[in-house]
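#struct-help
A.M.: can someone run this one for me? Single chain, 251 residues.
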Amino acid sequence: MKLMFVRHAEPWYAIDNLTEKGHREAALLAERLSKLDVKAFYTSPLGRARETARYTLEKMGREAEVLPWLAEFRGRSIDPEDGRHRIPWDYKPAIWMPREGLRDAQQWLDDPLFAEGDVAAIWEETKAGLDELLGRYGFVRDGHIWRNPENHPDTLVLFCHFGITAACLGYLLGISPMVLWHCFCAQPSSVTTLITEERVKGECVWRCMQLGDIGHLYAGDEPYSTAALYPECYTGVDSTDPPSWKEQGYR
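D.P.: on it. Structure tokens below:
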């Protein structure tokens, strides 16, 4: 089986939709995805993901099932520096990197950083959602192995968000999501692809073939979006909003 996690195109967060550039990205993405043999489409309930999906679905004459748990990972915890409720991928490096347990796939939630808040609850919701979805196709998790006596080369496409994609990858690949949230980036409209590897009949593991691929943007001569990235060099502006980069002379 193949899972393709598609991050929404460049977002206009204020209205939970896409920017003008985001619509161009979604159209180029549709050209790419419409060439594939897709078993089923799924989408986050949030507007920016559903609008991104609309381009592909209309082009292919298909529909997508909305999965509530596929909404952006929304768990929050208390920042020890300022007391704010903060999403896990928004912690400054000096706060999370010295905490070695946060790099451990089995122990990251045991860190005091998550003693308060609902990160653990949303993590359990994410795992349960993946278990249910994959269970529809015969997969049952058994420790680090996914058992499926009748695995098929089907392709599932999930339109969602970077945070929830990283959480899903953490669960499927056995990696702490803190490492994925902070050390990797999937830009708007990018495609992250996992496939099963079945060396023994009925015993599957997941392998990442692509993370954050934006080949469709290069093919369409469309620059990548800086949404989700902080500036390459310090500017004094703590923002991942694309306009803030442009105003400071960044690409």
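A.M.: thanks! The helical segments are 20-33, 47-60, 93-96, 119-135, 162-173, 177-183, 215-219, 242-247.
D.P.: also worth noting: The chain has a mean pLDDT of 94.
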